[in-house]
């Protein structure tokens, strides 16, 4: 018996189903491609573990050490881990040790801790001839406008006097304190971190040059094709 030919309506339904399936397959492939490209773009970060010697009034050294278990932060391509140790004793005598940075600290809320730093700590740390920086802990306390706070320019003026970097840091969050400490360390080592920035800039510049060359080549190819077509028409 001759095979019964499918009706036009049935043919249309089959075609619609096929079109829907093709669209779904394309969508699935696109999604899979998107997922793989996102996974390829995962950033690999370099871990920077800094040993920091905390120098200053015993109360302020204790302030910093309280946050020791929370001193982690992500900055650009770096995973920062700060490993602090007390760098002065109760009398303010500095312990000469191996550290990436000697961080001289004062409490923004207590001017006496600034006097202690000036008279007992900073001259000794300077004599060690090692990487040092000055930090006021508790930048956030300035929001209340309290009168007994240390002068606003304390960190910068002391930093200028001792030829190092200085800033007031947010103290309440360990991540912020870690980021601030690392920023002072990076600023104290411009030869290392400026080089990283320059290399990234150069790499980006090379990529842009390659892209510009490709764009110019594509434009030239299109122009040549148009001219060829014009000649053929003539």
From TrEMBL:
Comp. bias (Basic and acidic residues): 1-13, 28-48, 192-206
Compositionally biased intervals (Basic residues): 14-27, 207-234
Region (Disordered) location: 1-48, 190-234
Superkingdom in the source lineage: Eukaryota
Protein name: Uncharacterized protein
Origin species: Echinococcus granulosus
